[in-house]
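Retry 2 of 3 after timeout on previous attempt. Resubmitting structure tokens to design endpoint.
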């Protein structure tokens, strides 16, 4: 007889792993499906200083490894597969992957969201080594250093203002000659003495030997390129990229309610518009995308999935 899981979780980041832990501990048969490597964005984070209890110099990979071990200890299965299609109209949900087809009484979608990259030479190699996509995560590492913030929307300008608490100078690099952020946010930024602006400009290349040491800017009006090198005493500087996120929600388009960008719309209990399908983590509409909120979402989704299964299958 073909196996029907109680819960199948799409995504092996902090939200998916927390959901897996709570599901498995509740004695539900649980499968976590991850298309890449477990851990999501945190897997490439050198240091996790703002997750409660992550002392002893916890890194992203070490924290993920503990989460994975916990899930397995309580009986959750973790498989590598990419889900291509979901069928959720019937009581038993079907997930069609590249390697196999899976059946479940409930689905927790935790596919995450990935920051949009600049796509320039040196960016990937120096991510986590001076290039960052999260000021809340990494601002402290740049105390008394110079940083550049790429972007001109609300989040870019808000993160730039947050960075002024740490960095000695923050330069916002924007491809247009005016910001896209709300006027009220712009006004605060213009009044901040630590913030400079580089208009009509983009980054062409990021350079460094194991750490960011130089960056090449291009003026989109004149076509001129200039290179900025780290201050000799500093040896490095920060580049924070805020040009948007891409929620990994494509397979649910037309099935689950989403906002204009593609984030899942849920209630406080992680319920989507489809009974038995829950969403957790960076893929849903929320104000803070951090490990601490992702694991909270995952725990809530698993508890709600358990209640859904009890009500619909065990009566």
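Retry 2 succeeded. Sequence:
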């Amino acid at each position: 007889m073909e196996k029907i899981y109680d819960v199948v979780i799409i995504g092996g980041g902090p939200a998916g792993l927390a959901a897996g832990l709570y599901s498995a501990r509740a004695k539900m048969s649980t499968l976590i499906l991850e298309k890449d490597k477990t851990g999501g964005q945190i897997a490439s984070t050198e240091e996790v200083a703002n997750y409660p209890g992550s002392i002893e110099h916890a890194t992203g990979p070490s924290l993920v490894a503990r989460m994975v071990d916990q899930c397995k200890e309580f009986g959750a299965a973790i498989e590598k597969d990419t889900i291509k299609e979901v069928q959720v109209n019937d009581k038993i949900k079907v997930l069609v992957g590249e390697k196999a087809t899976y059946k479940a009484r409930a689905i927790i979608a935790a596919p995450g969201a990935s920051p949009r990259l600049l796509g320039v030479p040196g960016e990937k190699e120096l991510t986590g080594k001076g290039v960052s996509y999260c000021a809340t995560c990494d601002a402290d590492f740049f105390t008394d250093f110079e940083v550049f913030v790429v972007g001109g929307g609300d989040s870019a300008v808000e993160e730039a203002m947050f960075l002024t608490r740490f960095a000695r100078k923050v330069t916002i690099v924007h491809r247009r000659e005016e910001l896209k952020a709300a006027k009220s946010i712009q006004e605060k930024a213009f009044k901040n003495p630590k913030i400079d602006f580089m208009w009509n400009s983009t980054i062409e290349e990021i350079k460094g030997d194991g750490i960011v040491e130089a960056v090449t800017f291009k003026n989109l009006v004149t076509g001129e390129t200039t290179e900025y090198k780290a201050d000799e005493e500093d040896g490095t500087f920060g580049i924070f990229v805020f040009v948007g996120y891409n929620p990994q929600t494509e397979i649910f388009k037309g099935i689950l309610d989403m906002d204009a960008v593609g984030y899942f719309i849920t209630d406080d209990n992680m319920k989507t518009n489809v009974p038995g399908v829950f969403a957790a983590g960076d893929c849903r509409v929320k104000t803070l995308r951090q490990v601490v909120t992702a694991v909270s979402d995952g725990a809530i989704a698993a508890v709600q999935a358990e209640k859904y299964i009890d009500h619909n299958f065990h009566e």
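Attempt log closed. The chain has two domains: 4-115+245-313, 131-241.
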